[in-house]
Amino acid sequence: MTLDAVAREAGVSPATASRALNGTARVRDDLRQRVRAAADRLGYIPNAHAQALAGAANNRTVGLICHDVSDPYFAAISSGVMRAAAEQGLLVMLASTFREPAREISYVSMLRAQHARAILLIGSGFQDRAWERAMDAELEPYVRVGGRVAVISRHRSLRVDTVQPENRAGAAALARALVDLGHRTFAVLTGPAALTTVSDRLAGFREGLAEAGIGLGQVVEGAFTRDGGYEAARRLLLDTGRAPSPSRPTCVFAVTDVMAVGALAALREAGLRVPEDVSLAGFDDIPLVRELSPPLTTVALPLTSMGESVMALALRDTGAVRRARVVRVEGEVVLRGSTGVPGGCELLSVY
Fold it and tell me: For a 10 Å CB count at each end of the chain, is N or C smaller?
């Protein structure tokens, strides 16, 4: 037996029948009694899960789903989320998906079952139609009955509040800055192409180079981790060699700082000096890259404040009309000691 059948039996709309049965809004006594009588006649049992979600404003739990909390990028954002949640007296449940789309769907389903007040998705979306359909199937009914959802990064199919880092523009600005140093031969270490963050940063870097009439150069894909950056850099060196040559890039761009950290280890292991033999740049400005030797050139994002912003979006009062909001976050190119002019002259750190 369905709620629609109860509504027809009582002669009211499905929305009125729902309100009368779950008690989340005021309904005239005569209508409430009519709906309940119809439910009794038809043997309708209200969906306890939907009722609990409709009262989610009373739940003090927020679910935070990220790719890998051990990654300093996600750790910094999570810190911002938890700080903002603590100010509101909320408890944060944290889960890592390790970039497995199916696991992300499962965690969202679990948080729905836990009647979480809000669900936060922290990290790149997947360019995968099956994932998009499955995620929308989980989130749409959750939002419809009162759940709140906010995300960080580009999730093209999800009509939810978003904190959007300007990954494409930031990578283009970095490319222009590296060209201004005199670099003309590049290589890029990327993560999986299915991640929207990877595709946006790669596209932006390509666009920035194209403005100067320079091609992207060799692209080596690896895991979106420190070890992934290490292995990608090793493969790059196998292809281009260690000695200076027209085929070896003067600058390597890793699309995330954690990959750049691994790449730095691989370059040193191969006997190459950074930046004297090859320059290296990353993206995100995770805290540890300032302490590297040399400190890493990167595109800085305000990671902790991004976490605070996504929490604020999840808790904002939307009123009667619910419209998704996008908060755009610009990155700032920070030139440090890991990049220099081609030919062995080191660039002095400016940060």
Answer: N
The runs of H, that is alpha helices, within 145-269 are: 167-180, 196-210, 226-240, 257-269
Q: For the chain, give the number of residues.
A: 351
Rg (CA), the chain: 25
Tokens 């939907």 appear where? Answer: 50
Buried/exposed code over 179-218 (b: 16+ C-beta within 10 A; e: otherwise): bebebbbbbbbbbbeebbbbbbbbebbbbbbeeeebebbb
Contact 223, 263 (CB under 8 A): no
63 phi/psi in degrees, rounded to 5: -95, 130
**Residue 64, SS3 per DSSP:** strand
Q: Is the dihedral of CA 327, 331, 332, 336 positive or negative?
A: positive
Report the relative pairing of strands 332-334 and 326-329 from DSSP bridges.
unpaired
Give the integer Cα–Cα distance in Å for 119 and 79: 16
SS3 state at 65: strand
Classify residue 128 by burial, with Cβ atoms within 10 Å: 0-12, 13-18, 19+: middle
pLDDT digits (tens, 9 = 90+) for 169-221: 999 999 999 999 999 999 999 999 889 999 999 999 999 999 999 999 999 99
Residues 256 and 188 sit within 8 Å (Cβ to Cβ): no
Q: Is the pLDDT of residue 345 over 70?
A: no
DSSP β-ladder status, 186-190 and 251-254: parallel
Which residue ranges form the domains of the chain, and what is each CATH number?
Answer: 3-46 (1.10.260.40), 58-165+303-330 (3.40.50.2300), 167-301+333-346 (3.40.50.2300)
Q: What is the DSSP letter of 151?
A: E
Two tokens at 349?
A: 């750190």
Which pTM value belongs to this model? 0.79
Residue 57 DSSP one-character state: G
- Residue of 23, 2, 26 whose CA lies nearest to 14: 2
Q: Nearest Cα to 179, choosing from 143, 215, 151? A: 215
Q: What is the DSSP string of 266-333?
A: HHHHTT--TTTT-EEE-SB--GGGGSSSSPPBEEE--HHHHHHHHHHHHH----SS----EEEE--EE
Q: In this structure, what DSSP letter does residue 91 have?
A: E
